[in-house]
Structure formats: C-alpha cells, structure tokens
C-alpha cells in the first residue's frame, strides 16, 4: 500500500549540507593546569592558543560554521564565547595599555581574518575577566572542582537553541509531519528539523566529579538524542564518565601521549565534521569500562543484584532483604535457586518437587526453565 | 426524499439565523455575545445555542498590541502551549521501571478511514515505530510485544522481547504487509496479551496499550470475563481510541486501573494521537503494594570484546567481530540489554540503569518570573537568548477568558480591559523568564522544555558551586521541596499556573476537532 501512495516521491531528499557548530568545553581550573604543566610542560596559555587555532580551523571550513567556548571553572560554568550579553565586554588586560599600544595591536591584527580575530579577542577577554574575578583562596578551597554536568547541559541547551531553534525536545516540533527542506527563515533544514550540525569537544584536566554521575549521564543521553557527538581530549587522569560519554554519543576519546603537540591531536582527531567522519577510521578508544560498582562496598562487579524499585546495585543480597537505598522489602524468593545449575539435571522427579515447594511456582518455573530456543 | 427535504430546510434556517441577528442588532457579533453573558440570560428572541454552534473562535483571542502587531499575542500563545506540557507532577513516586507491555494495534477495516492522513492504518504504523523506539529509550530494561487485531482474530506481530530492532523489523515485515480487513476482536487480542503477560515476573509491570480504531468488537465469548481475568492478573490496560468513546473500553480501563479512567483517551487530531500514545512510554505509577512485588534481580554486567576474527553470536547466529561476553557462561551476544540465550541471565550495561534514573528523580518544575523580579536577568542563562527587557517595550497583550464570571467583570467598554490584564498577568507570560527554585537562575521557555524533557538536569544547579546556590537561597523564587510545595509561599505562582492551564485548555478547545471527536465531547 505504501507503494501506491503518491506521496512517496516527495520524500526524496538529498542530505542537506549543513554547517557545524563546535562547542568547546575547556577546563580552566588553575590548580589542575599548574599540576599538569609540571608533568607535561604544556601551560594553559599555550593550550589555549592551540585550541584557538583549532577553533579557527573549524571556522575556516565554512563561512556559516560557528564556534562557542565554555569554561568549566572552579566556581561554575561560564560562557567565554559568546560572552554574556549583560556583562562588561572590556578586556582587563587592555585596560592599562596606552593608545599607542592599542594602535600597534590593531595594526598587527589588521590583516587577520575578521572572524578569527573576533573569536580570539572574545575568548581571551572573557578568560581574563574570569581570572580577574577568581581569588587564590577560592582556588585553594576547591582544588578538583569540576562542573562537567553543568557545562554539558549548558552546551546542549545552546546547541538546542542554535541548531534546532529551541525545538529539540521530546515533543518539540510538529510531530509526524513531513518537514520541508527549507525552514521559515529560508535556511536549510534536514529531516530532523535541525538547521546546523553540532559537536562538543571536552578538553579536560580534572578528575571525574563523582557526585555528578546521574546529571552527567542525563546529559549524555540528551546528547545522544540530539545526535551530538561528544569528543573528549583527556590530558590527565583517564576518566570513566568521559569515556562513556564519547562511546555513547559516537565521539572520539583521546588521551594525548605528548600533550605539547596538542594542536596536532586536535587537528587530526577532532576537526573532521560528521560527513568526513563517516569515511574515516576515528582514533578512538575501543575498550570502555562498562562494569558497574555496587552501592554497598564499591566493588566492581560482573554479576550483581539490582533492586527492582530503585535500581540500586548490590554485590550480594542485602541484609534482611531490605534495599538500603529505598528501604523497600525485597522479595528474594526468586533467588533461591541461586548457585544451583541453571540447566536442570534430567531427573524429572526432582524438578517437580522443586517447583511445588516454591510459592510462586509460575515465576520460579519461568526462571528455572532453560533458554528459549528461537 | 421527504426526510432530506426537511433536513435541508432546517440547516438553511440555521445558516440564516446569525446573519439575521447580526443585522438586527447592528453591532458586532462579539459584543452581542458579551452582553448576553453579562446579563446571565439569553437575549430575547435568541434560541438556545447548541454546543456545536458555540465554537470557540481562536481569532477572538488575538488582540492587537499598541503598535498594531499581534506578535506579542502569538508569542504568548506559543509559550502557553509549550508550557502546558511541562506542568506535571514532580513528586518522586515509585514507578514500575521494569515493564512488560503488549502493544495491540487495530488492523480492522476501520483503519482504512482517511480521517487521519494518509490513513489511520499508515499513521498508526508510523507512530508504532516511533513508539517502539521511544519506549526502549525510556525503558531500556523493559520488554515489549506487539499484537494486531485483524479480521476478527488476534495476529501476533512480535514476541515479548527487549530488542527494539526485532520489533521494528517485525512491524515492517508483518504489519505493513497486512491489509486492514474485517472486524476487530477485543477479546481475542486481550486474551492473547494476557497469555503473554501471565508468566512475566512479579516485580515488573504488566501493561497493555490498545489502539482501537473500530467502534465495535466481535468477540467469541463474554468480554466481561476477560476483563475480570485481566484484573485478576493485575494487568493495566491503556486505550487510545481513534473514533469515539466506547463504553466497554471505558469499563475495561476503569476496572484494570483501580477505577481511574484517565488512561482512556480519544484522539482529537494527529498531534493529540501521538501525544496519547507517547504518554504510555513513561513508566506507570505503582499504585498498590500488591500490584508489583519488589524483588532483587540478578543481573550480569558484561564486558565488551573486540575480536580479530569473526565469530557467531549466540543470540542471532550472525557473524560479528566483537560483542559482549556473558560473565556467567561466556556466551557472546551482540546486543544489550538482553537475556543471555545460554544461561538466561539478564545482561545490561550500567548506562541502561542510569537511563531510568530520571523517572525516579524528576526535575522540579520551574516558575514564571514576574516583572518585579525580571530585572535581575537580561538573557537566558544557558542559551544566551536575550529576554525582553522592559514592560513598556513589549506590546500589551491580552486574552479573553471565556469564563462567565470573568466575562461579567469585564464589560465591553475600553477602560475595564487594562485592569483585567493586570489581574491576570501570567495568561501570556510577558517576561518570558522561568526560574529554577533552587539556583534562581532564569531560563527561556525553550531551555525550560529542553531541560525537563531531554536533559532532566537544571543547567544552573549543575553549574554553580554549592556555596553560590546557598547564598542565593533567599532570592526569589522561594525554594520548594520536591513534591511538598509550601502553599503559602508560592500561592500566587500556583494560581498563575492554574490560569495558564486554564488558558491553554481553552486554546485547546478552540481547535476545531475532526468530526468524530464532537461526539466524544458530548
């Protein structure tokens, strides 16, 4: 019947050639960078310049490509570019420069591509403002502070705004309607209603924020839903969260061996857009640690027990069969055959007996029965 | 012949009536109605209006702003519609996270109707595909099965299983090749669904989602017996009706849901159809203790392997390079979550468990920011969209409430109208700001929806240090505990919300629904 339907040939669409938005989430924790510099001789200023070259390379690919930079700082998340519209846009680094100096800078930058210069100036100015507002006490107070979940959430909401016109939510857009190739503003749109592609690059030097597991996972699933790959450039301490983020969203996970050559890693590993990535073998990590840790002893498990109400993981049935997280009395009757062979011995008599002795015989027999053959 | 003549006369007189009245009164239709409402009694000479005559005219709700544009109203209406979906109960409730659901599709001849485009049948199949994807995205450790009601029989489309790809192929292979035919049989389909759910473990939910396009059912026996046995086996039934409300469906839903018929919905249009269907992807609230017995499940967390040479997977017997190894019997499976085909152990990833957490810890609703607090922000915190800055710069917006009491207060003279606007400032949220009650950050409506529907995080709370959030504790809006809203503190906000809900309901009503739903309203 589908074939008779005349609407078929309207559905033909060439993949729309859309521009890409690159969101860079950059750790700006000064203490973490200082420690990292000691071991790798890559300082933050040089890393920032290399990142800006990477951003410029991205912008150079297409005139409509865009770039946003978000700082994951010790006191929270800050947009470096686009800078907060409400704040003072002056660069504190230029405040004490004379007119002569400014002229010289302007002349030096005169031949620079304007888009590059705007981004560079904005990021540097925002960063100087950020550092100017950071006190040494605050740095010492929170040596490992990281707001990964917040940075990812902010990046995703920004992507939702720029690439989906704010309609990337579950019930956003007109459901089930065939979308045209052109949106109301005349821009190109692909079949999912997006006007731009997006990718996120996380440049991280801080360890996993362990208390943010659920928010980080939520952000990862949201990115998965929007089909936004999260690329990770992990300079120090490999992390499970970011590995899972890259794995779940189809991004690249890299731990550069020689951080001094950051730019090369960035250019080779993270620059390709989604179209180029389809035909490349990406330098990503394959073996991701998926094993879970139990809530009771923090042991890493292969086989565990899960509470059916709150999904807490235990390494052994908890005491008194009460879930320690949600305080619910758990039914462990179905676990009685634990340790017994799953494939039952051929003695028919025994099997019958075992079933009869259990109260919920229907359930037990379902669990007992060998695998269905399909 | 005589009949049709009489009909014709009647309808023509109905057509003439408004014209004649409009001419006689010499004023606009709107004012006539208003005066009628204000009196509280029908104007002399006017007959009683039928419900279907009193159509809500959506254009009456639109009033020009000072600059003659209706942009402000349009923004307001859009936001109200978007916001409507968001105002849900955020109390953390126990939900059945591990679900067993049977999706029953109607494949009877009633599905050939073209009141939904392209046909009911094709649209249903398209939505069924979306449903399968969404269901497994929301409930990764749950199971699904699909049954069709075709030519008086129940047709098995896919078996109970946890792999969305299997269901999608089954839909493609079986449902799409079947031409809708014959009558639908509720009893046959429900019995087959019951048989499938009967042996499912007690810690999970047992649900049936029935898409019912026909208005009748041809059953081999007494359907009430089936309903009773469904209740006995604690199976919850949800029904989406495509035509009109059917008494037996209502009874079925009420009996299987403890007397609550909110799980029975009749669609208004395509969008509403999708909404009703997708509502079933959210895990149901656990109502009573005996509905589901919490238990401890043994699960395996397999590790992924990459092999140099291809080998057969034990689930599909396909040649694959790599897969997941069952920690108990070391069989290789190619897809998770699944049940190990060798030893029956449930194999999942810890990420699958994490996917369900947002059902257990829902994000609090955000509150609208009144103009008195709006000066603290100039742009949306997370997407950097600028907010309207000043009240004087936005065009005055008003919307009429078609409540008799409100209508009585506002007479048709112009002086009373602005006062009414001030009384109900939130009907069209003019500040376009929404604030999290914990971190007090202001967001735009799109970020509000995105945060609640997709991310399930508050970007503000996640991005501020605890000290900062604490230092903001005294700012507006007052903090609320999840599910335990202090009525005294947020009184005005709550009333605003009910007003928004009221306005959106009216907007919803002003939509002209397809013919079938008219009967439903009555």
From TrEMBL, chain A:
Main location: nucleus
Superkingdom as given in the UniProt entry: Eukaryota
Name of a matching Pfam family: Tfb4
One GO biological process term: regulation of DNA-templated transcription
GO cellular component: transcription factor TFIIH core complex; transcription factor TFIIH holo complex
GO molecular function: zinc ion binding
Keyword Magnesium: no
InterPro entries per UniProt: TFIIH_Tfb4/GTF2H3 (IPR004600), vWFA_dom_sf (IPR036465)
Keywords in alphabetical order: DNA damage, DNA repair, Metal-binding, Nucleus, Transcription, Transcription regulation, Zinc, Zinc-finger
Subcellular location: Nucleus
Region (Disordered): 347-374
Function (record text): Component of the general transcription and DNA repair factor IIH (TFIIH) core complex, which is involved in general and transcription-coupled nucleotide excision repair (NER) of damaged DNA and, when complexed to TFIIK, in RNA transcription by RNA polymerase II. In NER, TFIIH acts by opening DNA around the lesion to allow the excision of the damaged oligonucleotide and its replacement by a new DNA fragment. In transcription, TFIIH has an essential role in transcription initiation.
Family: Belongs to the TFB4 family.
Subunit record text: Component of the 7-subunit TFIIH core complex composed of XPB/SSL2, XPD/RAD3, SSL1, TFB1, TFB2, TFB4 and TFB5, which is active in NER. The core complex associates with the 3-subunit CTD-kinase module TFIIK composed of CCL1, KIN28 and TFB3 to form the 10-subunit holoenzyme (holo-TFIIH) active in transcription.
Name recorded for this polypeptide: General transcription and DNA repair factor IIH subunit TFB4
Species in which this protein is naturally found: Arthrobotrys flagrans
From TrEMBL, chain B:
Subcellular location: Nucleus
Chain spans, region Disordered: 1-51, 402-427
Annotated GO CC locations: transcription factor TFIIH core complex; transcription factor TFIIH holo complex
Molecular function GO labels: zinc ion binding
Annotated ranges, domain VWFA: 100-252
Ranges of biased composition (kind: Low complexity): 405-417
Superkingdom: Eukaryota
UniProt keyword list: DNA damage, DNA repair, Metal-binding, Nucleus, Transcription, Transcription regulation, Zinc, Zinc-finger
GO biological process: DNA-templated transcription; nucleotide-excision repair; regulation of transcription by RNA polymerase II
Cited InterPro entries: C1-like_sf, Ssl1-like, TFIIH_C1-like_dom, TFIIH_SSL1/p44, VWF_A, vWFA_dom_sf, Znf_C2H2_type, Znf_RING/FYVE/PHD
Zinc finger (C4-type): 326-343
Family listed: Belongs to the GTF2H2 family.
Function comment: Component of the general transcription and DNA repair factor IIH (TFIIH) core complex, which is involved in general and transcription-coupled nucleotide excision repair (NER) of damaged DNA and, when complexed to TFIIK, in RNA transcription by RNA polymerase II.
Listed PANTHER family: GENERAL TRANSCRIPTION FACTOR IIH SUBUNIT 2, GENERAL TRANSCRIPTION FACTOR IIH SUBUNIT 2-RELATED
Official protein name in the record: General transcription and DNA repair factor IIH
């Amino acid at each position: 019947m589908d074939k008779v339907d005349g609407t078929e040939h309207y559905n033909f669409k060439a993949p729309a050639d859309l521009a890409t938005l690159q969101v860079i989430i950059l750790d700006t924790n000064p203490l973490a960078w200082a420690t990292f510099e000691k071991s790798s001789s890559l300082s933050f200023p040089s890393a920032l310049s290399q990142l800006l070259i990477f951003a410029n390379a991205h912008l150079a690919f297409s005139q409509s490509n865009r770039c946003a930079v978000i700082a994951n700082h010790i006191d929270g998340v800050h947009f470096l570019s686009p800078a907060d519209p409400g704040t003072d846009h002056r660069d504190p680094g230029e405040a004490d420069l004379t007119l002569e100096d400014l002229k010289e800078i302007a002349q030096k930058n005169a031949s620079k591509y304007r888009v590059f210069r705007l981004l560079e100036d904005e990021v540097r100015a925002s960063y100087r403002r950020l550092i100017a507002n950071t006190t040494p006490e605050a740095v010492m107070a929170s040596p490992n502070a990281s707001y990964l979940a917040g940075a990812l959430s902010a990046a995703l909401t920004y992507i939702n705004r720029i690439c989906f016109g704010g309609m990337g939510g579950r019930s956003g857009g007109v459901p089930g309607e065939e979308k045209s190739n052109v949106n109301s503003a005349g821009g190109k749109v692909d079949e999912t209603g997006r006007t731009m592609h997006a990718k996120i690059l996380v440049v991280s030097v801080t360890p996993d924020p362990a208390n943010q597991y659920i928010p980080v996972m939520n952000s990862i699933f949201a990115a998965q839903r929007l089909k936004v790959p999260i690329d990770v450039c992990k300079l120090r301490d490999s992390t499970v969260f970011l590995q899972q983020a890259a794995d779940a969203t189809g991004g690249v996970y890299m731990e550069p061996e020689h951080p001094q050559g950051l730019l090369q890693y960035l250019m080779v590993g993270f620059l390709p857009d989604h179209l180029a990535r389809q035909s490349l073998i990406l330098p990503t990590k394959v073996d991701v640690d998926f094993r879970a840790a139990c809530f009771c002893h923090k042991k890493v498990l292969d086989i565990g027990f899960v509470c059916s109400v709150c999904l807490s993981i235990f390494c052994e049935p908890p005491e008194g069969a009460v879930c320690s997280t949600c305080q619910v009395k758990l039914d462990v009757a179905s676990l009685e055959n634990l340790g017994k062979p799953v494939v039952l011995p051929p003695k028919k008599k025994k099997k019958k007996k075992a079933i009869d002795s259990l109260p919920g015989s229907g359930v037990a027999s379902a669990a007992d029965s060998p695998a269905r053959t399909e | 012949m005589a009949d049709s003549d009489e009909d014709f006369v009647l309808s023509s007189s109905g057509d003439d009536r408004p014209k004649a009245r409009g001419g006689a009164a010499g004023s606009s239709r709107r004012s006539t109605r208003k005066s009628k409402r204000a009196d509280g009694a029908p104007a002399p000479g006017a007959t009683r209006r039928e419900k279907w005559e009193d159509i809500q005219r959506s254009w009456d709700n639109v009033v020009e702003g000072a600059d003659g544009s209706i942009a402000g109203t349009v923004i307001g209406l859009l936001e109200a519609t978007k916001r409507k979906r968001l105002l849900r109960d955020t109390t953390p409730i126990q939900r059945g996270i591990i679900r067993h659901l049977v999706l029953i599709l109607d494949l009877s001849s009633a599905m050939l109707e073209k009141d939904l485009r392209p046909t009911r049948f094709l649209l249903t199949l398209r939505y069924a595909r979306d449903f399968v994807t969404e269901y497994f995205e929301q409930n990764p450790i749950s199971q699904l099965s699909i049954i069709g009601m075709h030519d008086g029989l129940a047709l098995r489309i896919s078996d109970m299983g946890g792999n969305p790809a299997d269901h999608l192929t089954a839909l493609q292979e079986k449902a799409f090749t079947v031409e809708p035919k014959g009558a639908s049989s509720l009893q046959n389909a429900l019995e087959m669904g019951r048989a499938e759910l009967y042996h499912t473990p007690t810690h999970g939910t047992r649900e049936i989602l029935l898409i019912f396009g026909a208005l009748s059912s041809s059953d081999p026996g007494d359907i009430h017996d089936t309903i009773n046995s469904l209740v006995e086996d604690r199976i919850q039934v949800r029904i989406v009706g495509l035509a009109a409300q059917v008494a037996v469906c209502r009874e079925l839903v009420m009996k299987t849901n403890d007397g609550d018929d909110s799980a029975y919905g009749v669609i208004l249009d395509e969008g509403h159809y999708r909404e009703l269907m997708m509502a079933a992807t959210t895990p149901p609230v656990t109502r009573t203790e005996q509905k589901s017995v919490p238990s401890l499940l043994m699960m395996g967390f397999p590790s992924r392997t990459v092999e140099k040479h291809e080998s057969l997977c034990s689930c599909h017997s396909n040649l694959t390079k790599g897969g997941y190894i069952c920690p108990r019997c070391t069989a290789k499976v190619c897809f998770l979550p699944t049940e190990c085909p060798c030893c029956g152990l449930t194999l999942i990833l810890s990420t699958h468990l994490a996917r369900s957490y947002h059902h257990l810890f829902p994000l609090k609703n955000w509150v609208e920011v009144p103009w008195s607090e709006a000066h603290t922000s100039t742009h949306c915190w997370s997407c950097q969209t600028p907010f309207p800055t000043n009240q004087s710069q936005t065009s005055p917006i008003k919307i009429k409430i078609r409540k008799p009491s409100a209508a009585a207060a506002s007479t048709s003279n112009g002086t009373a109208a602005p006062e009414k606007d001030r009384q109900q400032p939130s009907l069209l949220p003019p500040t376009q700001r929404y604030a999290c009650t914990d971190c007090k950050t202001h967001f735009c409506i799109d970020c509000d929806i995105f945060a609640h529907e997709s991310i399930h995080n508050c970007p503000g709370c996640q991005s501020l240090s605890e000290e900062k959030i604490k230092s903001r504790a005294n700012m507006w809006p007052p903090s609320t505990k999840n599910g335990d809203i202090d009525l005294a503190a947020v009184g005005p906000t709550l009333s605003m919300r009910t007003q928004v809900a009221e306005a959106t309901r009216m907007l919803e009503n002003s939509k002209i629904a397809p013919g079938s739903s008219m009967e439903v309203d009555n």
